[in-house]
């Protein structure tokens, strides 16, 4: 089969829905939009942007992605590219209100889809849904039909397909097709299928479902036994033409199928699979880094395709030999997935042009950074180049970009605040003296707090103390406070910041990594926080649950300064966070597909 | 096929040989022995302990593992266990000196094996070995024959089997069998086979090699496309009865096949594979943590089986449903792989018994810690319990164990040093004033330097300074020095320590992670160092190459104190490191199988 006549594989990315269900991950709206833009540039065909009914925050995120990212064509045109807008998809249970809400969230995208799911296994029908098989078929007919009355592109997923009776499953799928479904997605919900089992299931369903020829079959695999990629490929070999995947394979438990692994298998084995892809593989590494940074889910060095070591060939013979005699497969060159190998360090004399070229090489070209972000990154680069004798490495550059993105992404999206300097005071040690409008007063470019001064004393047998001065944009003044801690200088620093901002904060996660080798390497700090003692929330899918979480990233040669900056960045997001955003419990809106 | 009549799968672990080839990983002898002991308890059948001819250090490590770990039967007896000593294996090129050296290194183990390899692809024969096919066959005959004259258990690997002519490969394997090979290992060297290709290759070789019935076929897969586990399982389904694997899948590039993934596939799908295993899966998590800590190769949260999130089921329905209706497969319960779910925190009133029980639950029972290590861990635990209000979590416990192991493992194994206090001086800022015998003067329990005092001042716009006092066991005195730094308090602290020890050190890697949630979490610091400006080395496999590297780990609520402790731990290892140990270039002894 020639490449031209092959079916195009539909990449359905669920990083923002199933990936975001990873324990500890909660992306806010701005972060989701940032990732969605990158996935659009990458060439993703369908983006599952969220589960709109789960909360007003989810609805808002999906709606903004539909409006702002749905129409984008940057990076999507040309030979071998998708040449269409990205389809924006919203998830819905088989309930009219869910479906209507999902439609309302996605409808402004030029191309949009509703993804409806209902369990089809007897155990789910009996214990969870408390309906009979007949009622199940009726509900599929009614709800897929309702969805189709709103929108021409409808995906249906039989939840727990793996344990559903096969003939009933075929009946359920045929019902969905008759009611108007255009894509049928078959989840290996618990990640326990072998490739031969999963391939056989896809084949069986295609052969035994009435109307199967008129729809696209889709894979949805989990990696509990390390076989998600193999199962997905087995699905493709057996007729699936859509794959549900996430960047870095993030997702609940051991995660979902990795987008980059599936695509590179097809890319390197053009003769082994009956499909072609339209993804720009050169953006894999930078996309992986972005998702790693914003989700806080670190990628291990020995991860296939996007791990730091994936292309470190220690023995030269090996790679040479392969290149001399590439036969049945194409070897992956590092640059094919956006890993630059030259690793030519930039120095203090490198100008704006060299800096820009390097950013482009690393996958941050064109619209990846706004003008303001580019200027901020260049300023940070010059500071860094002055202090680093060995030059600024690719690792440092990735960290710089993450830092700039983090510090310029506030939580909310409302207009800049009115001047509120009358509220300024040198100290604010209670949580009640913030101006009323402070919570919604942050725009992207108007950060509430900035670090002006920091002084820390610590050691073995010494009580750590930190003195911090922040500029408060709302009060229009610098505020200084001091704190001590039992548990080291970072805690003292964070406590002093908390005293200044007057909000009780819970530190959920704290991580420091070096960006490259050597003593003057940058420390990259990631912190994740939430308000302590959040009030219970109402109006969501289910009561109770977790509070919104905020990530801050910063890089500095001084780990304590980096920690303070990261913490302040997270605080700015938390304070700027639209109160209506992301209010839903994270756990409550998890679904098992 | 009933479980009783199934073939037993032979687990050949190469964490210490191929795994150690991961970029940045260099395990010293004590670390290798520690891992070898754990792999023995786990039930590994064959342990590839190293490449003895590569360097005197490699030889010494393999020999000590053969002597000290080879005879161990702890954890290996009982129903469903291996009930035999672990086979200790040494790798050798097809050269008489290599084979003799490998044999000398492993021969003291009750059960031992020599693993001989030779390339069989035309490209390797022509460009690398510069021999004809006939010469290749002759060399296999001679060298496998020579190995067999020393030892009854011989493994042969055709390097670059994937690109070798199939009929010549069968001829080469038949030659190896005739010369006495008992195991034939088929590497997918570049990790680019699909499962169906690799399975077909194993099948073809078994069907077309003369004498194939009398030997064991073995898989050796790499994970470049995320398919190592699937390829290995395809090998088993097509007749392989040995699998070459590493803990956490570490190895060059994207790594080797994960031991834990292959075993858990067989464990959960007893009816899908024609083999049974004899591994104690309950030790997976603690073994994974040990390899992670000692190798410095972090495991991502969404890694199958051993990732931190692998068993975090956020939605209860899901797991319940599975447990109610387990049909064709067995679900993995977290405790099956050593993940404790209760996560009952220990508090300041917890006694020695509760502490010990918790350690056992976490997979550190019995001989996992020496008495001295247990006492040290308990003392650290009591200190920590005093300062942590929320109690000591499982994450903290794993970190404590890693810390104690790191701080009690010196590099060398020679006798304690003679008193050398006459060399003591308040300052030692050059590298020439160490006593002559200081380099080989460290025994396991006699650490050269201990941290007595630390005082750090830093901040934004402040030049960081650190004052450090170390006790020097060789000089028998406390030594204090101070340093400043351009790049933060950690650099200042490390510089002050360098001044005291008088050795120029290169910082290769620095990482901090929190062990659990919350502000009083432990910071776990890992540093990796090498001597700066190492002299070129002689007598190794090849000239040039990299210098030995040393890891130090420490945990403390204060990140700077933890950093100082980790650095000192690494320094103690470096200084105690037997000069003859690990002298070979790491890169030079890499082989592509």
From TrEMBL, chains A, B:
Biological process (GO), any one: L-leucine biosynthetic process
Any one GO MF annotation of this record: methylthioalkylmalate synthase activity
Alphabetically ordered keywords of this record: Acyltransferase, Amino-acid biosynthesis, Branched-chain amino acid biosynthesis, Leucine biosynthesis, Metal-binding, Transferase
Keyword Ribonucleoprotein recorded: no
Top EC class, one word: transferase
Region (Disordered): 408-441
Name of a matching Pfam family: HMGL-like
Residue ranges annotated for the Pyruvate carboxyltransferase domain, each copy included: 9-285
ATP-binding as UniProt keyword: no
Family annotation (PANTHER family): 2-ISOPROPYLMALATE SYNTHASE 1, CHLOROPLASTIC-RELATED, HOMOCITRATE SYNTHASE-RELATED
Similarity section: Belongs to the alpha-IPM synthase/homocitrate synthase family. LeuA type 1 subfamily.
Protein name in UniProt: 2-isopropylmalate synthase
Taxonomic lineage of the native organism: Eukaryota, Fungi, Fungi incertae sedis, Zoopagomycota, Kickxellomycotina
Name of the gene this protein is made from: LEU4
């Amino acid at each position: 089969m020639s490449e031209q006549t092959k079916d195009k594989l539909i990449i359905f990315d669920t990083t923002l829905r199933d990936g975001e269900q990873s324990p500890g991950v909660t992306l806010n709206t701005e972060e989701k939009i940032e990732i969605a833009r990158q996935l659009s540039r990458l060439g993703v065909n369908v983006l599952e942007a969220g589960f709109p009914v789960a909360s007003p925050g989810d609805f808002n995120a999906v709606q903004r992605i539909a409006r702002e990212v749905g129409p984008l064509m940057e990076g999507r045109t040309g030979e071998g590219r998708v040449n269409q807008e990205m389809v924006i998809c919203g998830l819905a249970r088989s309930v009219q209100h869910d479906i209507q809400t999902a439609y309302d969230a996605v409808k402004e995208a030029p191309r949009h889809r509703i993804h409806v799911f209902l369990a089809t296994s007897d155990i789910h029908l009996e214990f969870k849904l408390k309906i009979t098989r007949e009622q199940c078929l009726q509900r599929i007919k009614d709800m897929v039909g309702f969805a189709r009355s709103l929108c021409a592109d409808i995906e249906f997923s039989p939840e727990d397909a793996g344990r559903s009776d096969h003939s009933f499953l075929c009946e359920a799928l045929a019902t969905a097709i008759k009611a108007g479904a255009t894509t049928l997605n078959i989840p290996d919900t618990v990640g326990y299928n072998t490739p031969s089992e999963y391939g056989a299931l896809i084949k069986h369903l295609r052969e035994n479902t009435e109307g199967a020829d008129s729809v696209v079959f889709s894979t949805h695999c989990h990696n509990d036994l390390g076989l998600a990629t193999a199962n997905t490929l087995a699905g493709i070999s057996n007729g699936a033409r859509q794959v549900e995947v996430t960047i870095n394979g993030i997702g609940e438990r051991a995660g979902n199928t990795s987008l980059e692994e599936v695509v590179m298998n097809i890319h390197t084995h053009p003769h082994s699979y009956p499909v072609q892809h339209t993804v720009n593989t050169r953006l894999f590494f930078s996309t992986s880094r972005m998702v790693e940074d914003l989700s806080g889910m670190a990628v291990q060095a020995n991860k296939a395709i996007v791990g730091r070591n994936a292309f470190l060939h220690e023995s030269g013979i090996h790679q040479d030999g392969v290149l001399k005699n590439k036969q049945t497969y194409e070897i992956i060159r590092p640059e094919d997935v956006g890993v630059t190998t030259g690793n030519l360090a930039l120095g203090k004399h490198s100008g704006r042009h060299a800096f820009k070229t390097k950013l482009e090489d690393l996958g941050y070209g064109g619209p990846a950074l706004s003008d303001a972000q580019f200027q901020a990154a260049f300023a940070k680069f010059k500071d860094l180049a002055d202090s680093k004798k060995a030059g600024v490495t690719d690792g440092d550059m990735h960290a710089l970009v993450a830092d700039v993105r983090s510090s310029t992404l506030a939580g909310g999206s409302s207009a800049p605040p009115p001047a509120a300097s009358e509220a300024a005071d040198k100290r604010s040690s209670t949580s009640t003296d913030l101006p009323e409008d402070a919570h919604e007063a942050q725009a992207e470019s108007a950060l509430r707090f900035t670090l002006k001064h920091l002084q820390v004393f610590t050691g073995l047998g010494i009580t750590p103390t930190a003195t911090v001065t922040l500029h408060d944009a709302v009060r229009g003044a610098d505020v200084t406070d001091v704190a001590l801690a039992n548990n080291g200088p970072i805690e003292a620093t964070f406590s002093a910041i908390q005293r200044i901002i007057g909000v009780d904060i819970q530190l959920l996660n704290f991580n420091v990594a070096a960006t490259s080798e050597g003593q003057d390497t940058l420390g990259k700090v990631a912190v994740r926080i939430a308000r302590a003692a959040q009030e219970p929330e109402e109006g969501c899918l289910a009561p109770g649950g977790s509070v919104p979480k905020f990530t801050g990233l910063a890089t500095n040669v001084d780990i304590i300064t980096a920690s303070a900056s990261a913490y302040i960045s997270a605080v700015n997001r938390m304070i700027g966070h639209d109160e209506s955003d992301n209010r839903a419990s994270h756990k409550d809106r998890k679904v098992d597909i």
